[in-house]
Amino acid sequence: MDIQKSPSNTQFVIAPSILSADFACLGKEVQDVLLAGADWIHFDVMDNHYVPNLTIGPLVCEAIRPHATKDGKPAMIDVHLMVEPVDRLVPDFAKAGANLISFHPEASPHVNRTLNLIRDQGCQAGLVFNPATPLDHLDHTLDLLDLVLLMSVNPGFGGQSFIPSTLNKITQVRARLDRYQAETGRYIRLEVDGGIKVDNIAQVAKAGADTFVAGSAIFGNKSYGTVIDAMRTELANSGIA
Ligand code: DX5
Ligand code: ZN
Question: Is 208 flagged in the annotation as binding?
């Protein structure tokens, strides 16, 4: 499948979380938000076990797959697994058309095995860190990662406020990923998820993020394009290339 691969240079990605979309017409919501200028679709999977909420699974991913296109090509479906255990669901999401699958390391007893499973299924792989989760799991996983996802809220719900201490964590991960890129030439994306709005996206970018999940900010406005355009303007004015 011709999907957007991580570029070798910084290119900002806006990934609306469909958690805040109208579930009664999800296919149209996906089409509309991509037409409005979104890059990826962020797909939040919650199991009422790892997090206290229950959302959508592989069947819904499969159902939206044909609607998730951009300029006639498949757009990235960025699956964020907030489930425990993880492995059982990975092949199902790969078959359902997920392009990138991220999971929380504390939800898998064998993180390396889960990352390899995701890659063996033909997907890109990401690790997700909650606000209070240390970054130790990056020590031995970078070669298997396409993306690091930092939570800027506690996972489980849309519409929460951005936790400011995330900025320091973004800076730390950025430095680490830059070092890794200098050593290996591999670019690993840094995504931030939770409470991202027009008025804080530039600050998050300046700290070092390149990929921005936004649910309520985009789907809570009747003009998705207005919000996405305003976010891109903020990013363009942030002074980061
Ligand atoms: C939270 C989810 C987020 C959430 C973001 O557990 O992972 O993706 O939907 O929503 P907002 O942008 O409203 O914080
Ligand atoms: Zn998410």
Answer: no
